[in-house]
From TrEMBL:
The lineage of its organism: Eukaryota, Viridiplantae, Streptophyta, Embryophyta, Tracheophyta. This is UDP-glucuronate 4-epimerase. GO terms for molecular function: UDP-glucuronate 4-epimerase activity. Its main location: Golgi. The chain crosses the membrane at residues 42-60.
Length: 446
């Protein structure tokens, strides 16, 4: 079973103890006991002591591995979740506080997009419950700071893994969620070359775990989940449209997201789950991920460290469709509001349900070199540039979103240009990392 594995690196695992069995012929044992009465008594007492311990652990109702008839672990013995106080916090956080509001389980709630989506939902009076495992793919203290932000907004974040089936089922038992916003995933293209199994476990098995819990829930929630623009892979048709080929991924990360889209089709087809996949295009902004280029470029520029700017073959420009977080949030909320209804009951499909995929981008690709120029102006520090050939690590040369489908279906209209968005990010960065303001030149930044 995979339930006890972390969805991403940073969690511990328990190694199974090794048992060594020594076999002795019965006659040999009898002879030894006959010739050594003291040894015989010691062996007998040892056997009795071991048998007593085994009986105690096997018969004890509080054994950690014991389970109920439903196959779920005992909540009272399964810290850190479970119990009346915990259930009260869960219900309070998920309580809808506006007429016609929705109740949403947000996985990956302490992540970049998850934090912004959760607070936006809470602000408008929806019920929100977060779930996050706080892994250390990047600095967990940033996730804890986001958790504190969510707590002040009234959002409780359950610490747990999306692959913990009993936990997911318990959450659906406690709260009749109308929607799931599934954002938990192993992010990043390059890290897959170091830890590929984390992507399969989190992005594939984790999605299955969430869909399993959703299809078994009564009522079934509608599901919105984060796919990625990476699924377009080696597609060269510009701008990227939802009808373009997505069967040539350039990275394992992209392959797991494409697998997720196919898995979503299965659960929609068999179980009647209403599922919407969102292909995000290079999201940036305050409280962002430190593994993203705009984030570590800012850090390194302030520290006067050289930054590497990739270029394609024959000095071709590398460009991204940078999309500001507020625009992504508007698309996420619109997707929830327009998700439609799941049609299953008790895991049985009663009719067809919506299955959709949307691009959420900005439609205005910008070269990475120009991104650096904007950061130089905002930080008032000259970057030490090091132009290098793009390595074969899964990155693609450019991304460009066609958002016409999202415009028609969701009313999605991004409004934030890169200059404006980066200015907001830099302001947050200098506030969150105050020591950066004492770096060379940054005291006068923005």
């Amino acid at each position: 079973m995979m339930d006890n594995l972390p969805s991403t690196p940073g969690k511990f695992k328990v190694d199974k103890p090794q048992y060594h069995h020594h076999h002795h012929h019965p006659r040999q044992l009898i002879l030894r006991w006959h010739h050594s009465p003291l040894l015989s008594k010691l062996v007998v007492w040892s056997i009795l002591a071991i048998a007593s311990l085994l009986a105690f652990f096997l018969l004890s109702p509080t054994t950690p591995n014991s389970s109920s008839t439903s196959g779920r672990r005992s909540l009272r013995n399964a810290a850190p979740w479970g119990g009346p106080a915990w259930e009260k916090r869960v219900r309070s956080s998920a309580r809808v506080r506006r007429p016609g509001g929705i109740s949403v389980l947000v996985t990956g709630a302490a992540g970049f997009v998850g934090t912004h989506v959760s607070t936006a939902l809470k602000r408008r009076g929806d019920g929100v419950l977060g779930l996050d495992n706080f892994n250390d793919y990047y600095d967990p203290s940033l996730k804890r700071a986001r958790q504190a932000l969510l707590s002040r907004a009234g959002v409780f974040v359950v610490e747990g893994d999306v692959n913990d089936g009993p936990l997911l089922h318990k959450l659906f038992d406690v709260v009749p969620f109308t929607h799931v916003m599934h954002l938990a995933a192993q992010a990043g293209v390059r890290y897959a070359m170091t830890n590929p199994s984390s992507y399969v476990h989190s992005n594939v098995a984790g999605l299955v775990s969430v869909l399993e819990a959703a299809k078994s829930a009564d009522p079934q929630p509608a599901v919105v989940w984060a796919s990625s623009s990476s699924v377009y892979g080696l597609n060269s048709h510009v701008p990227f449209s939802e009808v373009d080929r997505t069967d040539r991924p350039a990275s394992l990360y992209a392959a797991t997201k494409k697998a997720g889209e196919e898995i979503a089709h299965v659960y929609n087809h068999i179980y009647g789950l209403a599922i919407t996949g969102l292909r995000f295009f290079t999201v940036y902004g305050p409280w962002g991920r430190p593994d993203m280029a705009y984030f570590f470029f800012t850090r390194d520029i302030l520290c006067s460290k050289p930054i590497s700017i990739f270029e394609g073959p024959n000095h071709a420009t590398v460009a991204r469709d940078f999309t500001y977080i507020d625009d992504i949030v508007s698309g996420c909320l619109a997707s929830l509001d327009n998700a439609g209804k799941s049609t299953g009951s008790g895991g049985k499909k009663r009719g067809s349900a919506p299955l959709r995929v949307y691009n959420l981008g900005n439609t205005s690709p910008v070269s990475v070199s120009h991104l650096v120029s904007i950061l130089e102006q905002l930080l008032k520090v000259k970057a030490v540039r090091n132009v290098v050939k793009m390595p074969r690590n899964g990155d693609v040369q450019f991304t460009h979103a066609n958002i016409s489908l999202a415009q028609r279906g969701l009313g999605y209209h991004p409004t934030t240009d890169l200059n404006t968005g980066l200015k907001k990010f830099v302001r947050w960065y200098l506030d969150y990392y105050p020591t950066s303001s004492s770096k060379k030149g940054s005291s006068s930044a923005i």
